[in-house]
Amino acid sequence: MQAVLSESEQLLAEIEKADSLVFGVPMYNFGLPAQLKAYFDQIIRVNRSFTFDPDSEEVYQPMLANKPTTVIISVGDGDLLPGGPKADLNFLEPHLVTMLDFIGLRSVEFIRVGYEEFQDERLRVAFASAEQAVARLAASA
Ligand SMILES: Cc1cc2nc3c(=O)[nH]c(=O)nc-3n(C[C@H](O)[C@H](O)[C@H](O)COP(=O)(O)O)c2cc1C
Q1: Is there an atom of ligand 1 within 6 Å of 117 CB?
Q2: Residue 12, Cβ neighbours under 10 Å: how many?
Q3: Cα 138 off chain centre by
Q4: What atom of ligand 1 comes closest to residue 114's alpha carbon?
């Protein structure tokens, strides 16, 4: 059993040791890439990163200590980002926030780059703004 869980343990230990977390996430088919979903399937573990008590009022409780978490998102079509005309099709961000919150990571900030597939002025503006946000984040660390 220990061998089966060793990768999960290693990934959780990485999170526990870190002062803050940074995820780089492209949107794939309106959600997260399969590889990243597999990562979350390793770190969201009963009695390790959340508790499950069917008799409690709060059936699920997070177990990880909260820490600053930055998610840098890249999407082909920036209209899918919050406030955009296709934002209702953005399943990536609510899914990520729900999974992180579920295990206790509740201070999530997004840095977003839109319009990667359009390669136009909107992408240039999005890059410049994301770079500034990353620089601010690095300066505050
Ligand atoms: C398999 C796949 C699915 C994608 N699905 C979407 C999508 O649903 N919406 C979108 O805006 N962009 C989509 N894109 C574009 C990517 O989000 C965008 O190009 C991103 O910058 C790719 O990052 P990567 O080069 O790290 O994979 C998709 C790209 C790939 C390869």
Answers
A1: yes
A2: 20
A3: 18
A4: 11
The CATH code that applies to domain 21-114+122-140 is: 3.40.50.360
Our answer on whether the CB atom of 30 is closer than 6 Å to any ligand 1 atom is yes
Chunked in runs of 10, what are the mean pLDDT values of the chain (141 residues)? 91 98 98 98 98 97 98 98 98 98 98 96 96 93 76
> Which residues neighbour 135 within 8 Å (Cβ) at sequence distance 6 or greater?
none
Q: What does the buried/exposed string (b/e) look like for 54-76 if buried means 16 or more CB atoms within 10 Å of the residue's CB? A: eeeeeeeebebeeebbbbbbbbe
**Span from the CA of 79 to the centroid of ligand 1 (angstroms):** 13
Give dist(CA 93, CA 75) in Å, integer. 11
Place of tokens 């492209």: 26
